C-alpha cells in the first residue's frame, strides 16, 4: 500500500480532498470527555495517594473530582445518545475487528508495513472504545455507589464485596483508562494526523485519484 | 418506658457522653420490673473465636453487666458467664430451644468452621456425642426469633477465615441462609453495639440494617466522616508515619471505607480509640477483614499470584502505567528508526499539490526529500497537478 501510494504521489495522480468526518456534537463530546476524564483521573490519583509536593486542599480537590465526574458522565451520555439516534455503530467492536486485530498488532510491532484495511476506526481503536464504553459505565455506577455511601445503590456495594473492593475496582478501572488513553494519544499523534485534524475541524484529508475529480 | 425515638437519641447521646448503657439502663430496668418489657431470652454460642467479644462485653462499666443480663435481658446460656457446666448447662440450652422456640435470640460469636463437616470445632458434648458448632448453630438458629452474629468472625469470617482459610471458615449468614442474620461486626465488637442491638431487639424488634446486615444506628456513617482529624484531610495535611498527629490517610487508614461510630463512641469506657493514639483504622468492621484490609499501612490489599507471591496493588498500578510509557517510548524510537513516523506524518499532513517527491521509504535513513531536479516537475510548478 505504501509503495503504491508513493508511486501515485510521485506520478502526481492523487489529489487530496477534505471530507466531513466528525460531526460537531461528536467533536464537542470527544474534547469535553477528554478534558473531564483527564481531570477526573488526575484528581482521583491525587486523592488516592496524595503527593507531598502538591499542597492541595483535599476538600476542594474532592469537589473538583466530583465536578469532573459529573461532567464526564454528561458528555458520555450525550455521545451515547447521539450514537443511538444516528445509529452509529462505528465505535463498537465486531467479530471482524477481532479477526483483524492480530494483523493490526503485527503492523504496530513492525511485522508488516501497512495496517489492515479498516473503516472509520481500526480494530484496535474499536477494542479500546468498546472497553471504555463498558468500563466507564461500570466505573460510573461504582462511583455513584461510593458517592451515595450506601444511601442508594447499596446492592452494588454488596455485590462488589464491600467498600474496600469497590475502591479497588475503581482504582483498577482508572489505571486501565490511564494506560489506554496514553496509547490512544500517542497513536493519534503518530499514525494519521488527518484523523486528529478531523476531530478538531470536522474534516479529514483523504486521497483520491485526480482523474475521478 | 422509652419510645424508639428516645432510645435512638440516647444511642447517639450515650456515644458522645460515653455512658450509653448508663442512660438506657435505669428506665429499662424500671420498665422490666413493672412488667412493661418482656425480657428477651438470649442464648450465646461461641464457635471458632478468641472469646474477644465476650471480653469486650465485660467492658461495660455502668450499669454492671450482671444488671443487664438479669434485669433487662434473660441471659440463659453462655459458657463464659455460666456457673453450671457440662450436662446441666447444656440442658438449659436444650430446654430453652424446646420451650421458648421463636422467642429467644441466638447470639453467635466466632467463625463457622465448615471443613470436614465442622469437626474442627466442637462446642458441646451430649448423649456421648460431640456436637459441632456448625450443627448447633443451625439447630438453634432455625428455631430462634432473632439471630445475631457478634464480631467480624461470626459476621463475615474474620481473622479465622483469612487466607488461606484452612478450616473453610465463614460467617453465620452463609450457614443459615433461611434466616436474616443481624451482623454486629467488629474485632472485637464494641459493648455498646452488642447491648444496643440486643436492647433494640427486646424493645422494638429488628433495627434498621445496612446492605451488610449491620444496624445503621451504629454502622451508619464512615469513620472518615466523623473523624476528629478530618480537618487535616480536608486541608491536605497528612501524617507521613504512624504515630504522628495529622490525618493518617497516607499511611493506610481505612476510615474512608469503614462504617462504624468509633470516632464518637471510642473504646474502653471512652478512653481512646485507634486513631486517637495515632494508629490508622484497620477496617475491622468491614466484610473481607483482614484479607482485604492488609497490609494495614497501605490503601489496597496485596494481590496474590500463583506460588504464594504477593504484590502491592499500587506497585502493579504504577507498573502498568510505567510499562505503557516504556512501550510508547520504544515504539516511538522504532518508528523513527524505521521511518514510519516520517511516512505517516508526511502522508497525513502534506497536501498533494505541494507534496515533495520522496526517495525510498524503507527506513528513516533513506527517507529524505529529493534534491530539486530540473527534469522533474516540482510541486506547485505549472503542469505538476
Explained architecture:
- The complex is a heterodimer of chains A (213) and B (385).
- Chain A is mainly alpha-helical and 213 residues long.
- Chain A has helices at 2-11, 24-48, 58-86, 95-108, 123-148, 154-160, 163-190, 193-201, and strands spanning 14-20, 203-209.
- A two-stranded antiparallel ribbon of chain A has the order 1-2.
- Chain A is elongated and about 65 Å long.
- The two termini of chain A are 22 Å apart.
- With 385 residues, chain B is an alpha/beta fold.
- Helix content of chain B is 38%, strand content 11%.
- Chain B has 16 helices and eleven strands.
- In chain B, a hairpin with a 5-residue loop joins strand 10 and strand 11.
- The longest helix of chain B is centred in the last third of the chain and has 26 residues, at 313-338.
- The chains are: A mainly alpha (213), B alpha/beta (385).
What is the structure about, briefly put?
Chain A has helices spanning 2-11, 24-48, 58-86, 95-108, 123-148, 154-160, 163-190, 193-201; strands at residues 14-20, 203-209. With 213 residues, chain A is mainly alpha-helical.
Keywords, separated by commas or semicolons:
heterodimer; A: 213 residues; Fumarate Reductase Cytochrome B subunit; two-stranded antiparallel sheet; 7% strand; B: 385 residues; alpha/beta; Rossmann fold; 11 strands; 11% strand; disordered C terminus
The description of the largest β-sheet of chain B is: 5 strands, parallel
User: Helix coverage percent of residues of chain B?
Assistant: 25-40%
The largest beta-sheet of chain B arranges its strands as 2-1-3-7-9
The radius of gyration of chain B is: 33 Å
Largest interface: A-B, 54 and 60 residues
Summarize the biggest pleated sheet of chain A: 2 strands, antiparallel
Shape of chain A: elongated
Shape of chain B: elongated
Q: N-to-C SSE series of chain A? A: HEHHHHHHHE
Number of helices in the DSSP assignment of chain A: 8
Terminus-to-terminus distance of chain B: 100 Å
CATH fold field value of one domain in chain B? Rossmann fold
Structural class of chain A: mainly alpha
CATH-level-4 superfamily name of chain A: Transmembrane di-heme cytochromes, Chain C
Q: What is the second-level CATH architecture of chain A?
A: Up-down Bundle
Task: From the alpha carbons, calculate the radius of gyration of chain A and give it in angstroms.
Answer: 21 Å
What is the distance, rounded to the nearest whole angstrom, between the alpha carbons of the first and last residues of chain A? 22 Å
CATH class category of chain A: Mainly Alpha
SSE run of chain B:
HHEHHEHEEHEEHEHEHEHHHHHEEHH
Q: Tell me the fraction of residues in β-strands of chain B, as a range.
A: 5-15%
